[in-house]
Amino acid sequence: MPSAAVGAPYLRVLSFNPENLQPFPLENIAGWFKQSNERIYSAIAPTNEVEISCDLPAGLHKLDVPMEFAILDELLLVGSYPAKRTDEAAAAIFVFRPKMGEVEVLPQSWYTAEKFDRGYQWIARVVRDPMTGRIMGGGPRMQNFELAENGCDLARWLE
Predict the structure, then answer these.
(1) Of 24, 75, 20, nearest to 46 (Cα)?
(2) pTM (two decimals)
(3) Burial of 148 (0-12, 13-18, 19+ CB in 10 A)
(4) CB-side exposure of 110: number of CA atoms within 13 Å?
(5) Which of 38, 54, 93, 148 is the most buried (most CB within 10 A)?
(6) SS3 at position 77
(7) What's the DSSP call for residue 16?
(8) Cα 44 from Cα 51, distance rounded (Å)
(9) What pLDDT shows up at residue 27?
């Protein structure tokens, strides 16, 4: 079962065999996160992983994808994006399509350092509307939103 962990400057998508997962006591990991750059903790090693660079330019890119991920049609991931100016996209949605062996990078042109306080407001979740195919999302101290058909521009704020 895949899970995603953000690490700069890439996104790591990890696969675990759910039958081998083991519980762990909270006291074993309480101080671990403070001392580690890792943002996941597991008592077992992943069965496989894929790294997606956050520096990829906008558009479609081929990836080498392990077989464990072939059960997934699409996984939407959010990551930081290397803006050179305050009016450039500071985040991107990475549309990971394991069956196709590709990732599509959608820089979020509306999410810039000029318009948002990136340490205070950020895109935390996205989902594709099954009826329209459009991506919708939201995040801390940010109103929910719907993107335009191109997946990069803001179409509207949702109530």
Answers:
(1) 20
(2) 0.87
(3) middle
(4) 15
(5) 93
(6) strand
(7) -
(8) 19
(9) 74
